[in-house]
Structure formats: structure tokens, C-alpha cells
Write a structure and sequence with these properties.
It contains seven helices and ten strands. By secondary structure, the chain is α/β, with parallel strands linked by helices.
């Protein structure tokens, strides 16, 4: 886990290196209004990073799951902002609610970006195909999917602090991830250049799709920067 330590009571947890870099550059490494952590990929990684922030820095004012997601609602294009009221998982009995007052405050702060407040699904595995996304949309009625928010929300529940997820759509409902990206990210969330090269060697026809994904990543990073700019310094958490 990569951690940028400040005296801020709000904990921001990202999964990927790109997400962490955008947030840190936008907010500043020495910003006293937040603590920023890069967790790595998956629910367990998100939970561990969020709990370590809470246990290691005293009582937090809240925890935010910040970064990218996949779109399940066809109406959400790349760059769409998702601030879900609820995060659900494959466990039918499990649901994590966003803090109501904080959610309303962030929705107001991001009004110009027209955020979506519908339910988000937190998956166990990467959803790579358009068919897989359609299945999740039909089964769970969620608008977007990620892998870390349930873990971060679980940590917030254990720490008795408010929770919120703010996610930017990277790949839309009709987008399939190139096969070459299967090993492009390490478990810690950093880019795996060797894995990407091996993937391209196995799937050379994926080059155009990979270039398109790169363009979408640039759009998503730009929108993440806009979110951080709109909500800094305190990420609109109510007093």
C-alpha cells in the first residue's frame, strides 16, 4: 500500500497508480485536509488500506472510495461521474449505504458534472466483456461496477465513520476490455509493463483496442481531476 500522510481527517482510497497520481497531483502531497492511500486491486486490498488509514491516523472524519469504474448503464459514457447512494455485492444480504448528508453535499458540489446517484455493484473479479456487464445490469439493476468500494465501505462500518464512493466511468457498458490487458496491472495497482508486453505478444490484434482504452483513460483521468478540484480541500464532508 502506498500512503501519502497528512493531518487530514478524510481518508481517500484509490486502487490504481493512475488514480492515486491524479488525486495527489491535484490535491497536493502536503494537503492537510486528507490522507490518500493506494490500496491495490480488489475488496480485500481496499478494506486493508482503509482500515490502516483509520487505525494509523486516529479517528477519520470519513472514508471515500475514489477512482475509476466500469459502466453498466448504457447511458453512462466514459467520463461519467458516479456517486452511488448504495454499494451492493454478490451477497444478497449485503448493502453499504453512503452517508446521506455527505452524499447530498457531494452531489451539490459536483452538480456541474451531472453525477449519477444510482446503485453501484462491487464485484469479486474484473468484468471484461460487454455480455458480462449486461448480465450484471439485469441481475442487480446497478449503474456501474468496481472491485474495491465494498471493502472500503466495510472498513468504514468497522471504524464507525461515514462512507462515500466517487467513481469515474472508464469503460462503458458496451466496451470489452482488450485481452492484452489481463496482466497489465499488478495486485498493488501499479502498471505491469512486462505483463502488458506479454499480453500484446499473445494478442497483437488488440493494439487498436488498447490505444482506444488509453484515450478513454485520459478522459477518465481528466474527469477525476475535475472532481478533486470541485471538492477540495475537504471533499464536501458536512461539519
Amino acid at each position: 500500500m502506498t500512503v501519502s500522510r497528512t493531518s487530514c481527517p478524510v481518508g481517500l482510497v484509490t486502487a490504481l497508480q493512475q488514480e492515486f497520481a491524479v488525486a495527489r497531483k491535484c490535491l497536493g502531497a502536503n494537503n492537510s485536509s486528507f490522507i490518500l492511500a493506494q490500496s491495490g486491486v480488489g475488496r480485500a486490498a481496499g478494506y486493508i488500506a482503509a482500515e490502516e488509514l483509520g487505525r494509523g491516523n486516529g479517528r477519520l472524519a470519513g472514508l471515500i472510495s475514489l477512482g475509476f469504474c466500469g459502466g453498466l448503464d448504457p447511458a453512462l459514457a466514459c467520463g461519467s461521474v458516479v456517486v452511488p447512494r448504495y454499494v451492493i455485492t454478490p451477497d444478497a444480504e449485503e448493502r453499504f449505504d453512503a452517508d446521506e448528508a455527505w452524499h447530498a453535499s457531494v452531489m451539490a458540489g459536483l452538480a456541474d458534472l451531472q453525477p449519477c446517484a444510482d446503485t453501484m455493484f462491487s464485484a469479486r473479479d474484473v468484468v471484461t466483456s460487454a455480455a458480462g456487464k449486461r448480465d450484471l445490469r439485469q441481475r442487480y439493476r446497478a449503474c456501474a461496477v468496481d472491485m474495491e468500494s465494498a471493502g472500503i465501505a466495510h472498513a468504514a462500518r468497522r471504524l464507525h465513520v461515514p462512507f462515500l464512493a466517487i467513481r469515474i466511468v472508464l469503460d462503458g457498458a458496451d466496451d470489452a476490455l482488450p485481452h492484452a490487458t489481463a496482466d497489465a496491472v499488478k495486485p498493488d495497482g501499479n502498471l505491469n509493463i512486462k505483463g502488458l508486453v506479454r499480453g500484446l505478444a499473445r494478442h497483437p490484434k488488440d493494439v487498436p483496442a488498447l490505444m482506444a482504452l488509453g484515450r478513454k483513460s485520459a478522459v477518465a483521468q481528466g474527469r477525476l481531476k475535475a472532481v478533486c478540484e470541485a471538492l477540495k480541500p475537504g471533499f464536501a464532508i458536512p461539519a
